[in-house]
Amino acid sequence: MDRIDRVAVPFDRAPGGATNAYVVGAEDALLVDPAGVTDELSRAASERSVRHVAVTHAHPDHVGGVAEYADALDATVWCRAGRTGRFERATGVAPDETFRGGAELPVADGVTALDAPGHAPDHVAFRVGDGLLVGDLAVAEGSVAVTAPEGDMRAYFTALRRLYAAGAARLLPGHGRTIDRPRETIARLLSHRRDRERRVVAAVRGGACTVDEVLDAAYDKDLTGVRGLAAGTVEAHLAKLAVEGRVRREGDRVLPVEERH
């Protein structure tokens, strides 16, 4: 298995106040998700002869160090094909190379990209030996934010199922500790999302017809400081349910759809 080193990079707007950057491979190494530039990460990148840089997705807390490390290390910058514009706007760097889901990147000792959208439209994971670098697809504790308009709940469900089927021995997330029991964690995340979806459906059937009304009915906790995030999550659930024909939207109104038996 390839060597994978994790360096927590402080980022005040990241979950837990830090983002995990990873240095993959003993030679011709790959740097993944440099949220910023730190002495610890710079030492790791220099000692491991990093020659490539990539990100799991182009959110601010995963890309802040891309430009500087690409320049300082004269590294090849990789990006998901079809997402180069988004990548360049986020990082300030045009990618040198692109890849597609399922492709093996010619870096380190073998890194395979997996499409994993949902949290973000450009989200990917990287398989390295028996591990998977999963960015914001999964976390050891809590849940992952999937918020409209960018978050796609249907895609997130699919990505989690794909991750489950991948059968990795461990998951290396963008935030928090390594996940040593991947399928148990993925099952928990899926269960959490299904439970929230049931609450959203019940709220609509109970007469809630705006996002705020659904939000108040579907959440039984204090949302002070996170109400906007929760509203975006409800919107993402409603978009999924509308595509599946389980609710319908009429402007700002949400209406139930009768189930057929």
Structure description:
By secondary structure, this protein is an alpha/beta fold. The chain has 8 helices and 13 strands. The chain has 2 domains: 4-180, Metallo-beta-lactamase, Chain A, CATH 3.60.15.10; 195-256, Arc Repressor Mutant, subunit A, CATH 1.10.10. It has helices spanning 39-47, 60-63, 66-72, 84-91, 153-166, 182-205, 211-218, 227-243, and strands at residues 4-10, 18-24, 29-32, 50-54, 76-80, 97-99, 104-105, 111-115, 124-128, 131-135, 170-173, 247-250, 253-256. α6 crosses α7 (211-218) and α6 packs across α8 (227-243). The longest helix has 24 residues, at 182-205.
Which spans of ≥5 residues are poorly predicted at pLDDT below 50? none
Kindly state the number of beta strands. 13
Q: CATH-wise, what's the superfamily of the largest domain?
A: Ribonuclease Z/Hydroxyacylglutathione hydrolase-like
Distance between the termini: 51 Å
Q: Helix count?
A: 8
Output mean pLDDT.
Answer: 95
What is the strand arrangement across the widest sheet? 1-2-3-4-5-6
Structural class: alpha/beta
Q: What radius of gyration results from the CA coordinates? A: 19 Å
Tell me the strand percentage band. Answer: 15-25%
For the biggest sheet, the summary is: 6 strands, mixed
Fraction of residues in helix: 25-40%
